[in-house]
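Appendix B. Raw example, untouched.
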Amino acid sequence: MIQEGALRSTSGSTPVANANNYHRRGWGRIRAASVGFIVTAAILIPGAYPAYAAPSGIDPFLLLLKGVYTPATNAPNLGLAGINLNDGSFSVTNIYPINTAPSFAGGSNAVAGKFYVQFAGSLAVYDLPGGNIAMQFTAASDPIQIDDHHGGFYIEQTFELTIVQANGLYSSLVGGHNHMVDRAHVLSNGAFDENCICIISHGIDLPLWWASN
């Protein structure tokens, strides 16, 4: 297991340190971590998302989180109570549809939204066309670290999240669940490249692996 102090960049604290902390801890044992970055912020482009229609049924749906994390700046107000995406605690990457995301029209590879996460906190936010979802991490598996033989490494891990707020087309998801299957790539330059499948379901349609306390 790589220690945070062994990770270096020109800015001191790096996304690698925060990502490594994020992946190797259980969310019931959250500890503070400094947040710093060596990459520039992503620019959100209004109207860049593909066309969507109303969701149907309560079937679980899949989303893909993919891309290098950057600090969240100039993020929109998503109407989620008590959540300020510009408070300095959030990082952002892209969301892509996989197959059955509510309201997604057609098998496009276009960016479907933005994913915001607190590496030193417990919140995750999905900004999707037609609505937004806020979740809280509740559990994590033990991470597996794999050398990429190019100066970086992969971290494989699963996470469990509870949906605590949702609006728009996704309002009915409150109380539901997200099972993340993650294979993050910490690059040799210190960037953190996400590659995570999210399986999102309603509270009344929980997956078999979900056990409630």
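End of appendix B.
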